[in-house]
Amino acid sequence: MTKENITSSIGKTLDRFINNKQSEFPFATGELSQLLRDIALAGKIINRDVNKAGLSDIAGGHGSTNVQGEAQQKLDVIADQRFVRALTNGGEVCAIVSEEEDEIIHVNPNSRYVVAMDPLDGSSNIDVNVSIGTIFSIYRRLSPVGGPVQMEDVLQKGINQVASGYILYGSSTMLVYTTGHGVNGFTYEPSLGEFVLSHENMKCPESGTIYSINEGAYYSFEQSVRDYIDYCKREKYSARYIGSLVSDFHRNMLKGGIYIYPKTESAPNGKLRLMYECNALAFIAEQAGGVATDGMDRIMELELTELHQRSPLFMGSKKMVEKAQSFR
Length: 328
Ligand code: AHG
Ligand code: MN
Ligand code: MN
Description:
Structural class: alpha+beta
Helix content: 25-40%
Bound molecules: 2,5-anhydro-1,6-di-O-phosphono-D-glucitol, manganese (II) ion
Strand content: 15-25%
Shape: globular
CATH superfamily of the largest domain: Fructose-1,6-Bisphosphatase, subunit A, domain 1
Low-confidence stretches: none
Radius of gyration: 19 Å
Order of helices and strands: HHHEEHEEEEHEEEEEHEHEHEEH
Strand order of the largest sheet: 4-3-5-6-7-8-9-10
Distance between the termini: 54 Å
CATH class of the largest domain: Alpha Beta
Number of domains: 2
Mean pLDDT: 94
Number of strands: 15
């Protein structure tokens, strides 16, 4: 190995990266940096749980349903608790919205940040050892610090996000995030217990040949979506669908592709949640040069009226999303 090889192969730790970035903003108070560190810490703990899920008694159903009527897995509930605990102890957050909790979780009224999260995404894949993820989105509250958190603090449009990201528990574990200045990815080094910069300034190819949609539901999609699927087949694109949004999105961002979860007969607004699934990943997608819409309008400009509001999602390579929309 040459000297150059050695130096270029040593990544920066997430901590150092966050510190360096903070010093680029002269008036930053360090709260957002600390919040990102808290999220990374919870991610490490969940990673440990996920890695031994088959050995400990944490696989399988929890026997409960969340506010959306979906069966909760034990790991959904554990991941939710891990995050709420880490963010509560960290003290940088005034409120949390979680897929697994009906209402706003009120935390520290003296803090400035609101976090929305999907603690475990793709939970139907937990028990079968297939990649899953965590998604998070961070907003600055609108009401004055110190007072009670209001609905308006939480129901903000995606364009107000100050940061968002995801953790992918895959063949390796990665944390990918943006603060609106590009997207960076960090791979977890288990022997060091650190996330290390591995994917600097990630960019989504402008076009690609992968389409990701649950094609089993073909006959419950609108005609325009069916027409686009038929087009993908004629073009001999590759169909790739893991069923974990984070994993499907991550692959398509690296390789070029489109992810679609359209409205269906049984889900007239789509399945995915606008706040902590669509908006969070839309921010990453746009920062990487990609696009995210509901099939027509930009995801991050959609109005939010409910915590667990759903939206159709068309996201990924710019040209592919445009093409999909041209069938409307
Ligand atoms: P969650 O596990 O957080 O409820 O999310 C599951 C989501 C998403 O990850 C995935 O892309 C989609 O549901 C899969 O849904 P279908 O099984 O309907 O395709
Ligand atoms: Mn999810
Ligand atoms: Mn989930």
